[in-house]
Amino acid sequence: MVENTGKTVRADTYKPVNAPAALQVEEDALGLPLTVKLKRREAVISIEDRWRIDDEWWRAEPVSRLYYNVLLASGQRLVLYKDLVGGGWYEQEY
Amino acid sequence: MTIEHMFYIIYLPMKILCVRLSHFPWRCEIRKNPALADRPAIVIQAKDTVSSQKLVLDWSPELQGLARDMPLQQALARHDNAELIPSDIPYYRSVFKEILDNLEQVSPLVEGSDLGCVYIGADGLQLIYPNDSALINAAREVTADFMPQMGIAGNKFLASLAAQQSKPDDCKILWGDAAAFLKDLPCDVLPISLKSRSKLRDFGIRKLGQVAAMSPGPLQSQFGLEGKRIWELAQGIDNTPLYPRFMEEVIEESVTLPSVTVSMDAIVTSAESVLLHILPDIVRRGLGIRNLTLWTRTWNAENWERDINFKEPAMDSKNIISRLKRVLEDYPQPGPVEQVGIKVNRLGYTLGRQRNLFADIRAQEHLVDDIKQLELKLGNPQIYKVKEVEPWSRIPERRYALTPTSR
Fold first, then answer.
1. Separation of alpha carbons B166 and B154, rounded Å
2. Which numeric CATH code is attached to B178-234?
3. Which positions 22-51 of A are in contact with B (Cβ < 8 Å)?
4. Is residue A93 within 8 angstroms of chain B, CB to CB?
5. What number of CA atoms fall less than 13 Å from residue B305's CA on the CB side?
6. Which of B251, B394, B400 has the CB atom closest to A2's CB atom?
7. Residue numbers in B near A55 (CB within 8 A)
8. Is the pLDDT confidence value at B330 over 80?
9. Model ipTM?
10. pLDDT single digits (tens) B351-361
11. Domain hosting residue A62, numbered range
12. Measuring CA to CA, how many Å separate B382 from each of B133, B143, B276, B363, B385?
């Protein structure tokens, strides 16, 4: 019998690339991002693009996100999304 | 990692104890979820991996008018209030294996034929079990949760019939005049092909007594080789040998995916990861894989599995992975997959292995060795490589994954 190596293959040995990172975002009355807290709080000057994805609706935790490509006051561009299921904001390259 | 058993043939035993565990899949489900015991339930399985049709596998004993492999619609027409449970064959097998292991403590000659039917060679056990009831009690003790029906007779066919006729948790012992016992039984009890069974019906032969009254010649001319067997069985003669389990090493590992997927790449990557976890230990011992079972479990608890044989013991992960990939592509999954596993059933020694002389390949091996060393020192895993998982996915984090370089 082969001795157990002691190592088990676990789901966490896979690491997703480009996992979303939680972000503090201040919203306006319409739910659009007003300011974003990176190292410091920065105002959103313009929303360059906006798109929505709905997927895995058959699962207990469906994916429903509203993505924004925004331009910050510092000149930095950022892709962030609002999780329409959980309500949180996340930063993620698309 | 588990030890499982294969078969070898013994022709001698003349006293067989048959233990039938009726409604075995349903009782296994009760073991998983005791609350089911009070509710009418039907255990269902997919007809095949392609169609979505469901068939009845088992049911709670109080439900009448059901049969194995009956289409689910028909079953529901009879019992529309029954709870439907998807079958979990790997679990039933593991429970059955556990039962066989326990029965092996009763007698060393144990054959697990179908799920829920066990034949035990009971010859030469007189010093341990002075009489039949001591043997029956010992077998009952280890199968008590499954309400065993037991039968003792001089061969497997008679022992099985005796078990079928005994009450749950009881035993029928059949010695002496087998013909008298068999003559009024329907021909449907014969373990023969469906074609022969329906042919017997077409000839108006319904009872074993009618078959026994015939001479073997006409039966043989109509049914060929099986005709002889039909005649012998009707006389109570069964020369089928007992196939006791044979200890053989089995290695099994699986991985649960981070999310359910239908992506072939994700499934192949997982299978590869499991294989690369199992293989080094085997190769280190100078062995290769002769036979493995690749299995998956879908999010709605359906199971898919395929046996893969290797002509020569396989030690090269690339060859094995390409076989796994081909099988996964050829046989579609019944649904989105959430668990992938490999069971290595048979190992073998290779006759010769040619090492690669080219330095760049050696360099790759050295690199993997160094990474493994690093993992040993610092804990695993340390270095990852990016693999495409679902590059087409609309969800960015599903597109690529980091997998440990050393696996």
1. 16
2. 1.10.150.20
3. none
4. yes
5. 16
6. B251
7. 393-395
8. yes
9. 0.84
10. 665 666 666 66
11. 17-91
12. 61, 48, 16, 19, 10
